[in-house]
Amino acid sequence: MTRPIIVFDLDGTLIDTAPDLLDSLNHSLEAGGLVAAQSSQLHGFIGHGGKVMIEKAFAAQGKPLATDEHDRLYELFVDHYNGNMPGKSVPYPGVLDALDRFSDAGYLLAVCTNKFEMMAVRLLTELGIAHRFRFISGQDTFPYRKPDPRHLTDTIERAGGDLGRSLMVGDSRTDIDTAKAAGIPVVAVDFGYTDRHVREFEPSAIISHFGELTLGLVDRLIAASRR
Fold it and tell me: What pLDDT score does 101 carry?
C-alpha cells in the first residue's frame, strides 16, 4: 500500500526565513532607489516568490517598475539571498520533533514551495534537514506553481505518496487554496507570512505550534476527507 504523506510549505511554515528575505528585498529596493521595507510589511509581500515581493514593495511605495528594472533588481535579490544562505533562517519551534513523529509513524514527507527548487533544496541542506523529505518541489519544478493544485498533486506523486491519504501544512491563502483545489485537507499555521489571519481562508484546522500537529489530528482530517 502507498504510504500517507504530509506536504509542507517552506517559508513561514517550516522555516522562519523572514529576516533573510527582508535583507535581500531591501538590498534590491535600495539598489532601485527606494526606501527599505520594514519587517511589519513583509508578511504582505511574501507568498509568490522574490519577483512578486519586489513588485509589491514598489507598489506599496507608489513607484513605477519597468520590466528591465524589475529583472535587474530580481537578479540582485537572488544573488544576495543565495550568497547569504542560510543566514538567520531557522526551523520553527517543534518542527524537528514533528518531522520525527510522522516519519516514525510511516508518513512520507515532502515540500511544495514557491521558492525556486534550487534555493529550497540548498536552504534545507544547509540547515541539515533536506534528507528528511522524499521530494522537494519549487516554483520551477513543474510548468505550474501554487495555487495551481497540480503543483501539490505532482509533488505527492513524485514523492511516492498516496493522494487519497495526503495532507498539506501551510501558512497562507495560497497554500490553503491549493490544497482545497486538490481535494486535500490543509492545516494552517497561524505564525507565518500573511497579512490576514488564516482563519479567514477556512483551512481544515489551525495550529499555533508544531506540537499541535499530532498523529491523531492528521489521521482524523485525512479520514474525514475520504468520506
Answer: 98
- Contact between 194 and 47 under an 8 Å Cβ cutoff? The reply is yes
Residue 47: predicted pLDDT:
65
Alpha helices in the chain (DSSP H): 18-31, 39-42, 50-60, 67-83, 95-104, 117-126, 149-159, 173-182, 215-225
pLDDT confidence of residue 39: 85
Query: What's the sign of the alpha-carbon dihedral 68, 56, 151, 112?
Result: positive
Verify that 63 and 172 share a domain, yes or no.
Answer: no
Catalytic residues: 9
pLDDT (mean) for 179-187: 98
User: Is residue 223 a contact partner of residue 204, using CB atoms and an 8 Å limit?
Assistant: no
pLDDT at 93: 98
Percent of the chain with pLDDT over 70: 98
Domain carrying residue 68 = 18-83
Helix axes 173-182, 149-159, angle to 10 degrees: 70
Pair 207, 123 in one domain: yes
Assess whether 103 and 158 both reside in one domain.
Answer: yes
User: Residue 54 belongs to a domain with what CATH number?
Assistant: 1.10.150.240
Q: Are 95 and 62 within one domain? A: no
Same domain, 135 and 197: yes
Share of the chain above pLDDT 90, in %: 89
